[in-house]
Amino acid sequence: MGATLLVVVLASLATSAVAMVVTALVARRIGKIAVVDITWGLVFVAIGWVAYLTGTGSVRSLVLAVLVTLWGGRLAWHIRRRALGAGEDPRYAKMLAQVPEGERFGFAVRKVFLVQGLAAWFVSLPLQVAAATDRPLGWVAALGVVVLLVGVTFETVGDAQLAAFKKDPSNKGKVMDRGLWAWTRHPNYFGDSAVWWGLFVIAAEAWPGVLTVLSPVVMTYFLAFATGARLLESEMARRPGYPEYMERTSMFFPLPPRRRTNA
Fold first, then answer.
1. Using H for helix, E for strand and C for coil, what is the string for 83-130?
2. CA-to-CA distance for 177 and 185, rounded, in angstroms?
3. Global pTM?
């Protein structure tokens, strides 16, 4: 197993590196760092299949590759559709504004593409480790699939509900607090976290997959407390009605909405 795992890990690292190098070159050509957000989902798809092809070819690895393709493909499609015709993402624009123009690409390579490439490789460790084992699937893997599908459902439904809300002119200036957004302020981030916990559970059924627990932990930390929900809310909290929304709605994990209070 050791030699196979080493091959899978190195092949996955190379896949992540190539994906980010290509993305960096595309970003430089079109002048838009945010293209990396599209690659984010696709790099996991690539790693999933590379791990399967360089590993033992087990059913577990195949299932993981298919499931991560379902998640990553949908995410990339959604972000691409949302980004069409839009300018640079405000997060990256703010980051680059502090850097002299001639140094911005090098800065982006170090702070965005390199960091995301290494993060994708680390978070995908459950896929890599599972690819080096050949234990048959059991009920634990089935539980992992259920958790993952719950996550994909939250992401898909939450994104669709938000898009429909924004299309209605009567909602301009209002805070989305309906559907899944009444249970959690970030159904897409929660769903993303659930996806990676589901993938981990599937991998953990076969030793040494359980040792990759830091991968979903790190992903959840970034989604909830670092670059995800907390960062977004630092801006959203300034919008009229959002502080009240925060008071009655769970930040991350879905919970029944608290009763509205009268002003």
1. HCCCCCCHHHHHHHCCCCHHHHHHHHHHHHHHHHHHHHHHHCHHHHHH
2. 8
3. 0.91
The tens place of each residue's pLDDT in the chain, 263 residues long, gives 678 999 999 999 999 999 999 999 999 998 889 999 999 999 999 999 999 999 999 999 999 999 999 999 999 999 998 877 777 777 788 888 888 888 888 989 998 999 999 999 999 999 999 999 999 999 999 999 999 999 999 999 999 999 999 999 998 889 999 999 999 999 999 999 999 999 999 999 999 999 999 999 999 999 988 777 887 887 788 888 899 999 999 999 999 988 654 43
CA-based R_g, the chain, Å? 20
Containing domain of residue 233, as a range?
136-263
Whether the ω angle into residue 254 lies within 30 degrees of 0, i.e. cis, is no
Domain boundary among 134, 159, 184: 134
Q: Tell me how far apart the alpha carbons of residues 39 and 33 are, in angstroms, rounded to a whole number.
A: 11
Contacts for 148 with CB less than 8 Å, ≥ 6 apart: 67, 71, 194, 195, 198, 199, 202
Q: What is the count of structural domains for the chain?
A: 2
Q: How far is CA 13 from the centre of its chain?
A: 18
172 and 202 fall within a common domain: yes
Is the separation of the CB atoms in 69 and 43 below 8 Å?
no
Q: Of how many residues is the chain composed?
A: 263
